[in-house]
Amino acid sequence: MRYLIILISAFFIGAVQQGFAQVTISIANNLADGVKDGRLVLLFHHNEQVEPRFAVSDEVHTAQVFGMDFTDYDSGKPLVLDPKAFGYPVENLKDLPDGNYFIQAFIIKHETFAKSDGYTVLMPMDQGEGRQWNRTPGNVYSLPEKINWSGQGSISLEIDQIIPAIAPPKDTEFIKYIKIRSALLSEFWGKDMFLGANILLPKDFEKNKSDHYPLMVFHGHFPAEFSGFRTSPPDEGLENEYNARFGIYGYEKIQQQEAYDFYRNWTSDDFKRFIIIEIQHANPFYDDSYAVNSENLGPYGDAITHELIPYIEAQFRGIGEGWSRFLYGGSTGGWEALAVQVKYPKEYNGCFAACPDPIDFRAFTTVDIYQDQNAYTIQGPFRATDRVGKRNYLGHVSAMLKEMNHKELALGGPNSLSGDQWDIWQAVFSPVGDNGYPKPIWDKYTGEIDKEVADYWKEHYDLRYIMERDWDRLGEDLKGKIHLYCGDMDNYYLNNAVYLTEAFLEKTTNPYYAGEVLYGDRAEHCWNGAPDLPNYISRLRYNTLYLDKIAKRLLETAPENFNQQNWTFKK
């Protein structure tokens, strides 16, 4: 079979040019008809223990990736990797060092979207996995092969694997899974688009059919199933498993124990009664929409607040009033919690935003998009230096901002399609460009900042600026609702934007914001406001961490006729 592939490649391509390698990729007959438009990525890795498609990262031990888009694939003919395809961390195929590698070809399929703004675009789409390109059902790939790379000759690979569909999770006594068609999003994208939610119902929900409940909205990355809730004790034999992120053994057991403890609290007689929802809003750009209206993503803010949440409250006896809804989350979820509270100030009664993505674009991680000319370098009169992107709690830097963006450029191309962090920020915050894709905040290759785009970001999504600009209108509706938490050694420098936002909040008058901003000493991403707990524990307790503060808020704001069982306060 391999000999046949090489002959076919030679027939369509001709003789190999002298001096550099050509890479051709054929697609098995049973898969070829399902491929039309997409992005071909070619991956090289040095570690056979991890498939190359799962090894691309910001870190120094990343796999190598080269990428190129293709359209109108001619079934039966091989794809040829463009020798000029952009790569990360090595930019050009000709510069890849000689040596032994495990090589893999992967195709990210694109769909056609005829959007209501008049643009027709080709984009990847979530298939129930949360818009993870290397796990998307229907995407096709080759199995890794060991090669000796010399930069010359011809390499032929066959794509003969397809990622299978994902079985939906099943409802349980306490957990329900729902999905609805969003009329707003379907109109925007020109095809049926859906919102989903994982819902945790309180004890005796079916027994006490006259009770209605407050709603806790947990924002964050795509949740395949409801997380942190387990009805059985931890599994045996997990004590010796090492977790590299936190540097401890037995973390899987800790997670399972926390989830089991939460279940036991949830089902106890004196625990507060409320509904928790985790929202599924993956889209063509990312595993999450950032829960706001956007020129590029569509009206996700309105769809979630005015379509999904009322549907859930009607189906599961939510109270259905703004005073009964609370927002919380960390990182992406932290930004969303604050953004949704600011954008919909009357519809929610408080946000608890931990380690939020940049909430003041004067500190867009380590970039001031208004004053800096280049996102990747700091330029002096005689020399320039690269701008840092990631650190640990000691300040040791592991990635530069340029490298992090070049990874996305190789994976997704120039149109914000990597499914990764910088591209989704650009997609959410930017206006639509002339080609129908997000207008770049900076040149993805050079880092040169577009000041017109920066001004657009400021007016629409710089949360500190929006609050300051509109405090006369927003202040009364945000009073007592804003709670911010961040480690002062956040890995992505997110604390810098929190500092700037705190400086504004503390100066507010008529009214004073009356919330809180707390910092974790030497705490990394994602510290969420529990100074007496290690981060690896507190991150597992979002669903209970803020309940006392929420109860206090309800005491101050709930109507006199609210007498929900177990909230343990008196008017």
From TrEMBL:
Q: List the residue ranges forming a coiled coil, or say none.
A: none
- List the InterPro entries hit by this protein, alphabetically: AB_hydrolase_fold, Esterase-like, Mycobacterial_A85_antigen
Q: Which domain of life is it from?
A: Bacteria
According to UniProt, the name of this protein is Esterase
Q: Which organism is it from?
A: Rhodonellum psychrophilum GCM71 = DSM 17998
Source taxonomy lineage?
Bacteria, Pseudomonadati, Bacteroidota, Cytophagia, Cytophagales
